């Protein structure tokens, strides 16, 4: 009986230390990864494809922020973005076309807008997008 209790206690302790090590590993990996990915991985337009360009988010010089606030309300407090005014205008046109198909479900519409906005203009774009393949400065394949 004593052997069984010691064995069970030993197993529980091993499980505890394993889980603690696993949680620590995940926590430190995610925080480093998130810090490494902050910023832009795509910026501008290269012959119809997004330019594969690692850069810090850039403030709009014109009225592009108004467009972003209208189509991506969750980004309204941001000052810098991973898209320029032309990209913001194209994003606005694309999302308005998509709205026609998604208007019947407000939740689907908002989720789609959030995802596309984050992948296109969010200052934390690198957390959502990874350039898997680029050619001549153009992003050809994204992950």
Keywords:
two-stranded antiparallel ribbon, alpha+beta, two-stranded antiparallel sheet, 143 residues, globular, 4 helices
Question: How does the SSE layout of this entry go?
Answer:
Elements: H1 2-37, E1 40-46, E2 49-55, H2 64-71, H3 85-102, H4 106-120, E3 131-135, E4 138-142
Helix pairs in contact: 2-3, 3-4
Explain how this protein is built:
This protein is of the alpha+beta class and 143 residues long. A two-stranded antiparallel ribbon has the order 1-2. A two-stranded antiparallel ribbon has the order 3-4. Helix 2 packs parallel to helix 3. The model has no long low-confidence stretch (mean pLDDT 78).
Summarize the structure.
This protein is of the alpha+beta class and 143 residues long. It has helices at 2-37, 64-71, 85-102, 106-120, and strands at 40-46, 49-55, 131-135, 138-142. The protein has a two-stranded antiparallel ribbon. The protein has a two-stranded antiparallel sheet with strand order 3-4.
């Amino acid at each position: 009986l004593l052997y069984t209790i010691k064995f069970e206690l030993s197993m529980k302790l091993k499980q505890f230390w394993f889980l603690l090590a696993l949680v620590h590993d995940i926590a430190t990996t995610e925080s480093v990864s998130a810090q490494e990915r902050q910023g832009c991985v795509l910026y501008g337009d290269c012959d119809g494809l997004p330019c594969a360009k690692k850069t810090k988010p850039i403030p709009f010089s014109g009225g592009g922020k108004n467009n972003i606030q209208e189509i991506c309300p969750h980004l309204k407090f941001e000052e810098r973005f991973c898209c320029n005014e032309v990209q913001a205008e194209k994003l606005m046109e694309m999302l308005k076309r998509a709205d026609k198909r998604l208007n019947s479900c407000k939740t689907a519409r908002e989720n789609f807008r959030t995802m596309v906005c984050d992948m296109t203009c969010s200052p934390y774009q690198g957390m959502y997008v990874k350039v898997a393949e680029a050619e001549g400065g153009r992003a050809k394949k994204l992950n």
